[in-house]
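Input record, target 12 of the design panel.
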């Protein structure tokens, strides 16, 4: 993996809006999967990163592994669903950086199983981590982002925030919410110069399916064309550098979204048929 560099092209096909060197970035969900890979890439490109997640030992591991990287890494362990932790992140940025260039809202968790069998607690827990936490962290980061250099908010959504599927109702609802909120604030914040970007991965090989909320162990998710976290991280960082407003990842993901948009009834039928076989 080589460091990503911003570059301009004469024909304007790839115009970098941001340089990662010295960029001040807060990355949530940095202890595993996509977040871990994102932080690695940012550090190799010379960014200054504040990484957060609940598992401190994983964040320490990031420090050990990247001692020689050109960027700098600081960690702040904590639960993002706590307003105290979110405020501590902002305070840290104020004290150490006096501003913020990029907020990466990546932390998230899912749940699998029929809506009818689930508790209201499951819906609330999924919404807390996948929607309320990133939205509220963003709100309190805005004053810092306004003082940042080419500021951006990079939201990691999901293909399931574009087309919902059965047995993941809470997760789909949370990712739809994140997408709707991102669209709204993208326009609201345009004048202040803060870009709102969204990357929507499809199934990715990570610990996501080991840490499902209120989901019986052994519950399986059917998926094809699994992506690697580093591939998602690479595309997410390219989106940040080029300021791409929205990316849907993987051919399967794009087909699901397009078929849901153009042929909603047929898509419902196919998804229902696959349910019948489980
Ligand atoms: N894997 C997929 O198939 C897939 C597909 C589409 C979209 N996504 C999205 O990609 C993002 C990253 O997921 P991933 O695949 O990399 O899964 P992952 O390996 O399970 O990573 C999730 C990250 O979120 C953190 N996190 C979870 N709950 C938290 C909380 N309450 N407070 C603070 N941090 C919390 C976890 O850290 P701690 O446990 O240490 O707190 C971990 O670092 C998520 O938003 C997910 O919805 C994933």
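The sequence produced for target 12 reads:
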């Amino acid at each position: 993996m080589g460091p990503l560099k911003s570059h301009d092209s004469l024909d304007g096909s790839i115009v970098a809006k941001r340089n990662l060197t010295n960029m001040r970035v807060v990355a949530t969900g940095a202890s595993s999967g996509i977040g871990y890979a994102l932080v690695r890439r940012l550090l190799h490109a010379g960014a200054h990163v504040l990484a957060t997640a609940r598992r401190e030992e994983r964040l320490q591991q990031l420090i050990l592994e990247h001692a020689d990287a050109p960027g700098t890494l600081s960690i702040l362990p904590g639960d993002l669903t706590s307003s105290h932790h979110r405020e501590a992140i902002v305070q840290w940025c104020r004290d150490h950086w006096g501003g913020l260039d990029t907020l990466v809202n990546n932390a998230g968790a899912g749940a699998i199983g029929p809506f009818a069998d689930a508790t209201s607690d499951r819906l609330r827990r999924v919404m807390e981590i996948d929607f309320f936490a990133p939205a509220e962290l963003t709100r309190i980061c805005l004053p810092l982002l306004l003082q940042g250099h080419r500021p951006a908010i990079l939201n990691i959504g999901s293909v399931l925030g574009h087309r919902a599927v059965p047995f993941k109702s809470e997760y789909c609802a949370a990712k739809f919410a994140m997408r709707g909120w991102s669209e709204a604030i993208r326009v609201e914040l345009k004048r202040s110069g803060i870009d709102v970007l969204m990357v929507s991965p499809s199934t990715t090989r990570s610990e996501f399916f080991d840490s499902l909320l209120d989901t019986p162990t052994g519950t399986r998710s059917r998926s094809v064309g699994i992506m690697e976290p580093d591939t998602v991280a690479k595309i997410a960082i390219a989106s940040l550098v080029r300021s791409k407003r929205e990316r849907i990842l993987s051919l399967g993901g794009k087909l699901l979204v397009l078929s849901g948009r153009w042929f909603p009834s047929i898509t419902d039928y196919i998804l229902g048929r696959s349910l019948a076989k489980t």
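The pocket of NAP is lined by residues 29-35, 53-55, 58, 79-81, 106-109, 129, 156, 158, 201, 203-204, 206-208, 211, 229 (CB under 6 Å).
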